[in-house]
Amino acid sequence: PAPEPCGPLPNERQIKWYNDEIIAFFHFGINTFENNVNEGDGRAGTFIFNPTALDCRQWTGTLKSAGIPAGILVAKHADGFCNWPSAYTDYCVKNSPWRNGKGNLVKEYAEACRADSIGMGLYLGPHDRHEHLSPLYTKQRYEDYYANQLTELLTDYGPVYEIWWDGAGADELTISMYTRWYNIVRRLQPECVIFGTRNSYCFADVRWVGNESGIAGNPCWSTINPESIRDENDNRITLNHGEVNGSAYIPAESDVSIRPSWFYHSYEDKDVKTVKQLWDIYCNSVGHNSVMLLNFAPDRRGLVPAQDSINAAGLRKMIDDTFGNNLLTGASVKSLHQRGKQYAPKNLIDNLSKTYYASKDSNMTDSIVFDLKSPVTFDCLMLQEVIQLGHRTTRWSVDYSVDGKKWEKIPETENLQSIGHKWIVRFDPLKAKKVRLCILDGKACPALHTFGIYKQAILP
Ligand code: OTN
After folding, report:
1. CB-ligand 1 contact for 311 (6 Å cutoff)
2. Interface TM-score (ipTM) > 0.95
3. Nearest to 442 by CA among 19, 3, 21, 11
4. Distance 124 CA to ligand 1 centre (A)
5. Which domains, ranges and CATH numbers included, belong to the chain?
6. pLDDT value at position 136?
7. Which residue's alpha carbon is at the smallest distance from atom 10 of ligand 1?
8. Which residues of the chain carry a pLDDT beneath 50?
9. Which end of the chain is more exposed for a tag (fewer CB within 10 A), N or C?
10. Gap from CA of 207 to ligand 1 centroid (Å)
11. Which residue's alpha carbon is nearest to atom 12 within ligand 1?
12. Residue 448's pLDDT is what?
């Protein structure tokens, strides 16, 4: 029989989200038309919003070229300006010159996503500085206002991949407000992933990684005590690492912008992250059991600048060229504690989604040796657990042998703990005839999906 699951487990939404690996953000709105502004104060005039050549198919085209399967559009940032014609405010596109006040960015974005088979996510900033300006503002009024807008967005535009509840400025928003909003999300969009922070902590499918640099910790557990998310100011490090014995399964999402800022500024055109920088981020986010949430900042034309699209596509090529060739393919494989025929160690290198390796229930440790037909040179390795069965292994490392007899440890693998969806380690090139995966401790017998060694592709 299959191994019993261990500890808190992912739901269907989280499993799909993990397998998507990279998702995109699009920060675009009234801030795009102000100089030096990333967090507007809610006072900018609606007349400034006027993209000259907006084309959401160009945005989704960028994602397709980068192999990014979903993207989250800022529908309303903290400035309160709504990128769709909301029935509940005048502070929106209908009072802008764009498309003579008839434009609807959320609709155009949703249609582009549908046409290009991109998952459509939405950021509806819980904190709203424009509403706060109103003398009529009360907590109840804002709770209703947000509930109405959430209902508009989750009803009128088809399936929503993820909803993003930014914690920035959200201190006044209460658990009771989020409870009402959560019920709307689950009623209208049962499959929608929720990014939750602070007082939305109890509804979070995914958590903040604790920084905006795209770096998940080592280790990075998918489990955490939810209160650590609520009290994020005291728990940045905990958000980054998770908690091995945390009571809930709430994995880390690593938000990072392809430019220094979240919104477009022409003076940052020279600072677009290079393929090398994006590759490092990928290996430290996706390769640290997280998901990479990569922000794009469409410019005042309403287009993703060319260099940003090119570099994102370069990252995809780097990923595919590196991980497309597992150098262990064809090796003979033996393990110490194989569970049974169905869970054979060769499943680790068969490139099939359903098969996996597992040890006997009584064995929390194991040793799996890969014997190559001829020596190979590699500078990267990747290991995946069967996430449906929970975090199991808590300590592991990798050895190699040049002559097939004497073993040496790969130093960069000496302090590894978590695995989860994917763990990637890079190092200077090594030559080996044999490679040994050492499972050194765990809460349950290992259940491992894939193991590979690779030669990193050449950066452009
Ligand atoms: O000043 N900030 O609001 C800030 C500075 C640096 C990094 C993050 C923040 S806000 C922070 O943003 C996160 C997403 O990147 C989450 O939404 C957190 O809940 C929020 O507090």
Report:
1. no
2. yes
3. 3
4. 15
5. 12-323 (3.20.20.80), 332-454 (2.60.120.260)
6. 86
7. 168
8. none
9. N
10. 12
11. 168
12. 98
